[in-house]
Amino acid sequence: MKVILSGDHAGMTLRNEVKDLLEEMHIAYEDTGCSCETSVDYPDYALPAAQRVASGEFDRGILICGTGIGMSIAANKVKGIRCALVHDVYSAKLTRQHNDSNMLAMGERVIGPGLAREIAKTWLETAFDGGRHERRLNKLTAYEENR
Length: 147
Ligand code: RB5
Known about the structure:
alpha/beta; 5-stranded parallel sheet; about 45% helix; globular
């Protein structure tokens, strides 16, 4: 699995925590987030990362900002992206099993590093259930294709 990681200035500490986790899990990743000496705009980081997941260059993406909200809104504008904003472990598991989310967003101002690690680990390790959930995702894809 190849993961793209990105984030703005408000998510830098949590992004470093996720980087440590990816290294511990021996998952290949590229960090395209800001170096963050100054304040930046989250769409400038979320949109290119989402495009690189949508194109198939990366299997999954993890986005971090202050709340996770801006990054998730931006990522979900990109065709083919199912970005889940997650701040609990149960949702991390279910969004993989039911939504086949290909991007995860978290907020550094919302949760601490320990929980963020658990969420990211669960999200990375959980497979899509398929079945009836596939049918539902197909409806989203059809909507995207036809608008
Ligand atoms: C930056 O201050 C903050 O607005 C951003 O990181 C994010 O939380 C937006 O949704």
